[in-house]
Design goal:
metal-binding, about 30% strand, six-stranded mixed sheet, Related to laccase, single chain, 5 helices, about 425 residues, Cu-oxidase-like_N, signal, oxidoreductase activity, mainly beta, Immunoglobulin-like
Length: about 425
């Protein structure tokens, strides 16, 4: 299984304007046509969103004391192993046109997609090839419960020792929840330097759609090296504690206004760096898997001219609702469906903007949504943002927008559980 929206190119370093994910090909490889790697059909069998993740994750958050007594069905055990082999290195890249040292996974920034079915075993071997200077590393699998396998959680100093320079370690764990998530280094500030990547665990669907665009990784971006940022943040000098992000990326891309580079900064910078592009098909319903894999910023996401239907937050399927703006804090994931317009309109701007709660140099990231093949090479359009998006950007505080629309498909009361305070 692969996503056309998440094709990766392998390069020893990324030149100005290039990132790990090129423009989309004309065909998508994953739709609602059943993907059945097992001869008996869907690996989760009769399990549905009404009796699985819906309350399992919600239960963990709100009813921690009852963790061992939750009632949703146990995950399936397919016996299938999804094996990956990752090498972590330093590299030289210009995701937004500004050259800097970055951390890479298999020479990609961000890292490659991990994809599995609910109930599969995910097996990832990590090779630490970090040099100049050498460092330990460890990878954390965000949101995975790791029940009875907590030593696979990837937090050095808690579940494991760091993977030593030149060493390797194999993580093996059950895909016990389904939906959209991500992985990242839990060593120092490495994930702010680029050791991040998406994970998709397929499971029961609550709403039909035609095309899965795949993960859309949203990240604030720093031109300084992550170790210098960590050092200043932990210092006693109040003038160094607060850090400004330099830019904001969509799937590892955006352009940057090089005229804002500080005086005396001799790094090469190109202001016309490439941006990400996504193709929609007229009349089709597209699933977008939004991930805030940034280091600090709360992000606001929107697509000009298109309403989004939210179907899941983190690993929790919810009762769908329509919105023009999605807010994501660091680590949050939101799955949305977007009904493409009729005909061949466009192109349109996809927007991810850093909330006013954070400090930044350039807060706005843009990508392009296009319908016609000939528009793939077009310049960024000048479509107008939704008024709701403009208002949200102006008024955004440090938290999410109104969460009254977030309603899980099955409530705690329906599970017969009492609320714990």
């Amino acid at each position: 299984m692969r996503y056309a929206a998440f094709v990766a190119i392998f390069l020893p370093s990324l030149v100005a304007g290039q990132a790990s994910y090129p423009e989309l090909p004309s065909q998508y490889l994953l739709t609602t046509t059943p993907v059945t790697p097992l001869p008996q059909g869907f690996p989760w069998g009769p399990k549905t969103a009404n009796n699985t993740n819906v309350c399992k994750f919600f239960l963990i958050v709100t009813l921690l004391a009852h963790l061992t007594n939750f009632s949703p069905d146990n995950p399936p055990h397919t016996g299938v192993i999804r094996a990956y082999d990752f090498t972590i290195t330093r590299g030289w890249a210009a995701p937004d046109g500004y050259y800097k040292d970055v951390m890479m996974v298999n020479n990609q920034f961000p890292g490659p997609l991990i994809e599995a079915n609910w109930g599969d075993t995910i097996q990832v071997t990590i090779h630490n090839a970090i040099t100049a200077p050498e460092e330990g590393t460890a990878l954390h699998w965000h949101g995975i419960l790791q029940k009875d396998m907590q030593w696979m959680d990837g937090v050095p100093g808690v579940q494991q020792c760091p993977i030593a320079p030149g060493g390797s370690f194999t993580y093996s764990f059950l895909a016990d929840l389904y939906g959209t998530t991500w992985y990242h280094s839990h060593y120092s500030g490495q994930y702010a330097g680029g050791v991040v990547g998406p994970m998709v665990i397929h499971g029961p669907s609550t709403v039909a759609y035609d095309i899965d665009i795949g993960p859309i990784i949203l990240t604030d971006h720093y031109h300084r090296e992550y170790f210098d940022i960590v050092k200043d943040t932990m210092s006693t000098d109040i003038n160094k504690v607060i850090q400004l992000s330099d830019n904001n990326l969509i799937n590892g891309r955006n352009n940057f206004n090089c005229s804002t580079v500080a005086t005396g900064d001799t790094r090469q910078c190109f202001s016309n760096a490439a941006t990400s592009k996504f193709r929609f098909y007229s009349g089709k319903v597209h699933r977008l898997r939004l991930i805030n894999a940034g280091a600090e910023a709360t992000l606001l996401f929107s697509i000009d001219g298109h309403t989004m239907k939210v179907i899941a937050n983190d690993f929790v399927p919810i009762i769908p609702y329509d919105t023009k703006v999605v807010t994501l804090g660091v680590g949050q994931r939101t799955d949305v469906l977007v009904q493409a317009q009729a005909g061949t309109p466009g192109p349109f701007v996809m927007r991810s903007t850093i909330s006013a709660c954070s400090l930044f140099v350039q807060p706005a990231a843009k990508a392009m949504v296009y319908y016609r093949t000939q528009d793939a090479a077009a310049a960024m359009p000048n479509t107008s943002p939704w008024p709701e998006f403009t208002t949200a950007v102006a008024n955004a505080a440090c938290g999410n927008v109104d969460t009254s629309s977030y309603k899980s498909i099955k409530t705690i009361q329906e599970l017969g559980l009492s609320t714990v305070t």
